[in-house]
Design a protein that fits this description.
Elements: E1 6-9, E2 12-15, E3 39-45, H1 64-72, E4 74-80, H2 86-95, H3 99-102, H4 111-114, H5 122-126, E5 131-137, E6 155-158, E7 171-174, H6 195-213, H7 220-231, E8 234-236, H8 245-263, E9 266-273, E10 280-282, H9 284-287, H10 333-364, E11 370-376, E12 381-382, E13 388-389, H11 395-398, E14 399-405, E15 415-421, H12 425-432, H13 447-451, E16 461-467, E17 469-475, E18 479-485, E19 499-504, H14 522-536
Parallel strand pairs: 3-9, 3-11, 4-15, 5-6, 5-9, 6-7, 8-10
Antiparallel strand pairs: 1-2, 4-14, 11-14, 12-13, 16-17, 17-18, 18-19
Helix pairs in contact: 6-7, 8-10
Length: 545
């Protein structure tokens, strides 16, 4: 869905063009090499913050393979997700629709139940007679709740039991175990270097299994003691990199790439990687590269926030690491440094896993005719505003890394400062393969930006998160505005949010000085509110009355 384009004049915004305008440029005019017959490799990573990647300016974390992608492609500096939790974000980029259309707002929401039956679907759209379509690891949040979105894949390789779509007609297989012989990835918890914690996790695992065997419902109450303790673990996984989940996935996917190169079969392959999600565990050699004593904590501490509404900071509650269920794992300065170090180690491990795929492309010559689209489903808080993991509308959660490589592209190594969104990915893939775009797409193909990264483009991105009701955010280059409502209904001119945020992202990039309600910014606030309301008025918004 395109949005209004605003121009700045005398410090305020004024309308320049009508709503739903989107810049357009045909493939033929794009100055890109022909892409219709190229392969597509999509790499999707869980919870990877852009500011934890070398190519995005982090001077500490070591990510040489993603950095090499940045030199070969266009790096998007202002890419944003539509929701800062897995399920709604993935439902959005898999359909090319925003959450108000999919009606998927929470991890517990079922895509099969809520997304309209005739909605666009990535696998179905990219499924062509001459294409082998494969999925390794995570694409949707859980195939249990999104089985119909698996249709179109020829092969799905999984590591979790819930990664098996019911009724799937293609080939379904578990990822081969690595040298350590671990098949069930949850059993990785028994190998962590902290053996006291491993033994404690084993006891909780056994207690859960006993209750399940006795007929208990497999709900969050039952899973919580184990899951929340596991989420607190950081540091050495105790497992070699080929045996951890991501290592298994990429080595199996690399083997498939070799087979596809030999057969000269055109393909669409998505590889979903996990390791930057809690628990923050990585192989020892990556952990040793980041001594906790050398890690700096964020300057954006909670006590420096001015008029930032408590709901924006989740009322002080974390859901993954530092979740509060186990007080001995509280956020002391030492534990926070250990968490930052572990997150960087996980970033380096994910990068090395991506390197396995990139090396195979070079080895087989597929790098000459394979488009690479790399991005994360959302970001990750590293203590900013007292928040860890995701579930906020702050920049650290909504902004994502995104790099697109087209072999032979003119602007290889360039950066794009224009705003793009994950909802734009599927329309972009359609344009790259010259597939007609679905009329219901709410994203805009950003192929023109691959040809001309500095061209004018849309000027706002929209994100949401459930916090009681729904928090909604609109981000322009200069400002971010958010409203928090007690329901999920689209905001209107007469709706009454219970909390509001406005930040000048130029002077306050850490979003610690809330300008909402200040007379000097009344005009900007009204313009941003109008932008939030108009941008949510999709022709595809469902009538939920």
């Amino acid at each position: 869905m395109a949005v209004e384009v605003f121009v700045r004049w005398a410090g305020v915004f004024t309308l320049a063009v009508p709503a739903f305008f989107a810049p357009a440029l045909s493939i033929a005019e794009s100055n890109l090499p022909p892409t219709r017959d190229m392969n597509l490799l999509m790499i999707t990573v869980e919870d990877w913050a852009a500011n934890a990647i070398g190519a995005y300016g982090n001077p500490v974390v070591q990510t040489p393979h993603v950095d090499s992608l940045a030199k070969r492609g266009v790096t998007f500096d202002r890419a944003y997700c539509q929701a800062t939790v897995c399920n709604p974000s993935r439902a959005s980029f898999v359909t090319g629709m925003r959450p108000d259309y999919t009606q998927v707002f929470r991890n517990s929401d079922s895509m099969d139940d809520l997304v309209p039956a005739d909605a666009p679907s990535m696998a179905r759209i990219l499924d062509r007679d001459d294409v082998f379509a494969a999925q390794f690891g995570k694409l949707v949040h859980k195939w249990d709740d999104a089985g119909r979105f698996a249709k179109g894949f020829d092969l799905i390789e999984y590591t979790h039991d819930y990664d098996q779509p019911p009724g799937f007609e293609g080939t379904l297989r578990r990822s081969p175990a690595g040298p350590a012989g671990i098949e069930d990835v949850e059993m990785e918890c028994l190998e962590i270097a902290d053996k006291t914690a491993a033994a404690r996790l084993k006891r909780l695992w056994d207690e859960r299994e006993e209750k399940l065997a006795a007929g208990a419902e497999n709900n969050w109450t039952l899973r919580k003691p184990f899951q929340q303790l596991f989420a607190e673990q950081v540091g050495d996984s105790g497992i070699d990199e080929a045996s951890m989940e991501d290592g298994r996935l990429v080595r199996s996917a690399a083997k498939l790439l070799g087979d596809l190169a030999e057969s000269k079969q055109k393909f669409f392959l998505n590889v979903g990687l996990y390791s930057t999600h809690t628990p923050l565990l990585a192989p020892k050699k990556y952990v040793e590269a980041y001594p906790p004593s050398q890690m700096l904590l964020t300057p954006a501490t909670r006590n420096r926030d001015y008029l930032v509404p408590d709901v924006a900071r989740r009322g002080g509650k974390n859901y993954d690491i530092f979740n509060g269920l186990y007080p001995e794992y509280g956020p002391t300065n030492q534990r926070q440094r250990e968490a930052v170090a572990a997150y960087y180690a996980c970033s380096s491990y994910v990068d090395a896993s991506i390197g396995v795929l990139l090396n195979k492309l070079v080895e087989t010559g597929l790098d000459q005719n394979t488009i690479i689209v790399f991005f994360a489903d959302h970001g990750f808080q590293l203590g900013e505003h007292g928040c860890w993991s995701k579930f906020t509308l702050f920049e650290q959660s909504t902004r994502v890394p995104m790099i697109v490589v087209v072999p032979g592209m003119k602007h290889a190594g360039d950066r794009c400062g224009q705003i793009v969104e994950l909802v734009d990915v599927l329309p972009t893939l359609c344009d790259l393969w010259e597939i007609p775009k679905d009329s219901r797409f709410e994203g805009d193909s950003f192929v023109p930006l691959l040809a001309s990264p500095d061209r004018p483009w849309k000027t706002a991105a929209y994100s949401c998160i459930t916090l009681g009701g729904l928090g909604r955010s609109v981000r322009t280059k200069d400002y971010r505005y958010a409203e928090y409502h007690r329901d999920v209904a689209p905001p209107t001119e007469t709706s009454d949010p219970h909390a509001v945020e406005l930040y000048d992202m130029r002077s306050d990039p850490w979003e610690q000085n809330n300008l909402a309600g200040r007379p000097a910014f009344e005009s900007v606030q009204q313009q941003m509110r109008d932008l939030l309301i108009s941008g949510t008025k999709s022709i595809n918004v469902l009538d939920t009355d």
